[in-house]
Specification:
Helix content is about 30%, strand content about 20%. By secondary structure, it is an alpha/beta fold. Strands 2-1-3-6-7 form a five-stranded parallel β-sheet, sandwiched between helices. A two-stranded antiparallel ribbon has the order 4-5. It is globular, with a radius of gyration of 16 Å. Flavin mononucleotide (FMN) binds near residues 17 and 77.
C-alpha cells in the first residue's frame, strides 16, 4: 500500500490541518503497517503556478496515481483552498490520465483510491450559516475529485478555529475523534 500525504497550510507547526492530516496518516499506518508514505509539504515548498510546460510533465500525476490513499491537509484561504494546493491539483487533472472526454461527456479515470481531506477554517459555513454559500473549499474539492472519478472521499472538518480558544480546542478534539473513527 502507498500513502501520499500532502500539506498545504502556510502556518507551520501551529497548523490544525497538519495535525489532522498527520493523525489520519498515522491511523492508516496503524491499519496497514506495511504502507509506504510519500510526503509533500506544499506550504514549505510551494510549486510554481501552472505553466504550459507543466502539462507534459507527469511526475506529480503519476505519483498521485501510484497512491492507494491520499491524505490532504486543506485549510480554507479566502473561501477556497490555498493556491499552494491549487497548483498541485492543476498538475493532477490531466486528460487521458485522470479524466477523459468521450462522446457522452467527461468521465473520471482515477477511481479505486481513497482520498481523506483534513479541512480547517476560521469561521462557520454550515447550512444554518448566513454565509454557507461562501463555502468553496470542500465543495470545490468534492467537485474536483468527483470529476476525476474518486468516489471514496472523506472529509474531517474543524470549523470555527478563529472563534476563540474554547471553540478551537473543541473543534480540534472533535476532529481528532473523527480521525480515530475513520474506516480505513
Ligand atoms: C491567508 C488566509 C486566509 C484565510 N481565509 C479564511 C476564510 O476565507 N474563511 C475562514 O473561515 N477562515 C480563513 N482563514 C483562517 C484559516 O482557515 C484557519 O486559520 C485554519 O485553521 C487554517 O488551517 P491551518 O491551521 O491548518 O493553517 C484564513 C487564514 C489565512 C492564513
Amino acid at each position: 500500500m502507498k500513502i501520499l500525504h500532502i500539506d498545504s497550510s502556510i502556518s507551520g507547526p501551529e497548523s490544525v490541518s497538519r495535525k489532522l492530516s498527520l493523525a489520519a496518516v498515522e491511523k492508516l499506518q496503524a491499519e496497514h503497517p506495511e504502507a509506504d508514505v510519500v510526503y509533500r509539504d506544499l506550504g514549505a515548498e510551494p510549486l510554481p503556478h501552472l505553466s504550459l510546460a507543466d502539462l507534459s510533465d507527469h511526475q506529480l500525476v503519476d505519483e498521485f496515481l501510484s497512491a492507494d490513499a491520499i491524505v490532504l491537509g486543506a485549510p480554507m484561504y479566502n473561501f477556497t483552498v490555498p493556491t499552494n494546493l491549487k497548483a498541485w491539483l492543476d498538475r493532477i487533472a490531466i486528460a487521458g490520465k485522470t479524466f477523459q472526454y468521450a462522446a457522452n461527456g467527461p468521465s473520471g479515470l482515477a477511481g479505486g483510491r481513497k482520498v481523506i481531506v483534513a479541512s480547517t477554517r476560521g469561521g462557520f459555513y454550515g447550512p444554518e450559516s448566513p454565509i454557507t454559500s461562501y463555502e468553496l473549499q470542500d465543495r470545490y474539492l468534492k467537485t474536483f475529485f468527483g470529476f476525476l472519478g474518486v468516489t471514496d472521499l472523506t472529509f474531517v472538518n474543524a470549523e470555527g478555529l478563529g472563534m476563540g480558544p474554547e471553540q478551537k480546542s473543541r473543534a480540534v478534539q472533535d476532529a481528532m475523534t473523527a480521525v480515530e473513527n475513520l474506516a480505513v
